[in-house]
Amino acid sequence: MVPSATVDVKVISFADLRVSPDKAAYCKGDKASLSIKVAATDNYDISWQRDGAVVPDFANQAEIMTDIPGNYLAVVSSKAKPTCIKSSPIYSLVFHEPPIAKIAKTILTSLCDGEAVGLSVDNNGGTVLWSTGETTASIVVRHSGKYSVRVTSASGCTSEDNIDVLMQPNPVLDVPDTSVCTFTKSTVELTAPAGFAKYFWNGVEGSSTFSISVPQTVTLKVEDTNGCTATQNIIVGSNCPEVQMGNTFTPNNDGVNDTWTISGIGNDATVHLNIYNRNGQEVYKSLGYYIPWDGRYHGKLLPSAVYYYVLSARKGKQKLSGWVTILY
Questions:
Q1: How many angstroms separate the CA atoms of 328 and 323, rounded?
Q2: Same fold? 104-168, 244-326
Q3: DSSP class of residue 171?
């Protein structure tokens, strides 16, 4: 019988040896983390090579950090049997150039708030994200502010840029609405704020003031020295104080109700008053500013009777008529 012996055979096995990066792609300025999986670091010697040359600083490190591009591989040998060696496949480490984000304005002149300014960036096939939330290569903005953009390349590299957009403020108008008297055709003067370069009233260039005597909507447009404009519609309505006159008076010099007065016409120089007796003879005329009638004709008191008046303004375009009685 042939004697037998027991032999211990120790098999040295390497894990699936490959270089694993910590992310799919790197950009210039990044540091790459490259690692390998080994069963127990104490049982192995590890060396790293870059472009075929050993990198001493990475000796016996299962994970390395580097910002140098090149072809990397790891070589693992067993401390128990140094001739038992395995090399990983080569990993090509590339640091990609980041995109160049540079915002360009399509209009370089000074603009007024609300006007359109185009901003654009060359995305070089990557993705774009503006501070406005828009994702197109070009956007339109209409207000002052700081605008920024981030461009992300296909390799995941990013670049940012920002730009200050300054819009000139538009003028502010607040001319109050007003009214004129439709009977007397009184004139009101609209006054715009001072200091603007140009004033346009109903489309016609003028000064900072504008006189009007008929109810209408007046359009005021102003332009400042930057060329910025503002427009306001001013409503000029019709509003007359009630024209009042008594229907009797007693011109007896007792100091009470001695004249016939008319209220509500103010100092309108266009008011004409004509008074007639029952035969149609004119006994009183007031042209221009109204003077209360004292009941006289050619300096003499008229007798008690009913007299008829016509009150008009603006060459008779507005008229009131009625009667008044003289009593003693």
A1: 17
A2: yes
A3: P
| Ranges of each domain in the chain | 20-96, 104-168, 178-238, 244-326
Q: How far apart are CA 237 and CA 216, in angstroms?
A: 7
* CA dist., res. 195 & res. 209, Å (int): 12
What tokens does 114 get? 């609300």
Closest to 146 in 3D by CA, of 160, 159, 125, 127 = 160
Per DSSP, the residues of 26-69 read EETT--EEEE---S-GGGEEEEEEETTEE-GGGTT-SEEEE---
Cβ neighbors of 221 (< 8 A, separation 6 or more) are 199, 200, 203, 229, 230, 231
Q: What is the mean pLDDT of each run of 10 residues along the chain (328 residues)?
A: 55 75 92 86 86 95 95 92 90 93 76 89 90 95 93 91 92 94 77 96 97 93 94 90 85 94 73 92 86 92 96 72 94
The CATH architecture annotation of domain 104-168 reads Sandwich (2.60)
Q: In whole angstroms, what is the distance from residue 84 CA to residue 152 CA?
A: 45
Secondary structure (3-state) at 138: strand
Spatial distance between the Cα atoms of 4 and 2, rounded to a whole number of angstroms: 6
- From the list 60, 16, 58, 56, the residue with the least C-alpha distance to 41 is 60
For residue 218, give both structure tokens.
């007046």
Strand partners, 45: 77
Report how far residue 313's alpha carbon sits from residue 291's, in angstroms, rounded to the nearest whole number: 15
Identity at 43, one-letter amino acid code: N
Angle at 16 between CA 14 and CA 22, to 5 degrees: 125
Q: Are 289 and 269 in contact (CB under 8 A)?
A: yes
| Residues belonging to the chain | 328
